[in-house]
Amino acid sequence: MNREKKAQEIAALRENFSKAKAVIFTDFTGLKVEEINELRKKLRTASVNYRVIKNTLAQRACEGTDLETVKDKITGPLGVAICYNDPVSAPRALNDFVKGKEKLKIRFGVVEGKAVDPKEIKAIAELPSKEVMLSTFLGGLKSPTRKLAGLLYQLVARFGYALEAVKSKKAQ
């Protein structure tokens, strides 16, 4: 690759890194080509790009982005999973793939600007989906209003029962 192509590649990577919500670095040593293609296919279904890039290009592309904190960790054979939409989709898809293939190792990453280690990536992957979390939250918000409505209904009903009792007592 000549100098001009490298500069273009670095600029493209820097742009990808700056737009990404999550970037996860993996060690793919020992994986066969078919397994890497299977990984790419699985990640593509989760809207995640997976690339193998040279370390020096990745280190230079990290400059000026959120990934600058992990720049020194970029060594050895690394694959990069880049996610632009949901920051949980990349860790979740990689975690699912790692369960079946012990050779792929998650090394480190950056999720929404914060450097994370493999344990944190696994914890992020095991979070419930956004929809489940939102429905749980909304259910929690709805509960107090239901209880208040039930309480007010009971007050009105008891008042009505009391009036009925007074009416029936006077009628006697």
What does this structure look like?
The protein has helices at 3-19, 33-45, 55-62, 89-100, 118-125, 130-171, and strands at residues 22-27, 48-52, 79-83, 105-111, 114-116. With 172 residues, the protein is α+β, with helices and mostly antiparallel strands. A five-stranded antiparallel sheet has the order 2-3-1-4-5. The longest helix has 42 residues, at 130-171. It starts with a helix and ends with a helix. The model has no long low-confidence stretch (mean pLDDT 86).
Residue-averaged pLDDT: 86
Summarize the helix and strand pattern as letters.
HEHEHEHEEHH
Q: Count of DSSP helices?
A: 6
Helix vs. strand class: alpha+beta
How much helical structure, as a percent, in the residues?
A: 55-70%
- Count the strands? 5
Q: How big is the Rg?
A: 27 Å
Record the strand order, biggest sheet. Answer: 2-3-1-4-5
Strand content bin: 15-25%
Give the helix/strand layout.
Elements: H1 3-19, E1 22-27, H2 33-45, E2 48-52, H3 55-62, E3 79-83, H4 89-100, E4 105-111, E5 114-116, H5 118-125, H6 130-171
Antiparallel strand pairs: 1-3, 1-4, 2-3, 4-5
Helix pairs in contact: 1-3, 4-5
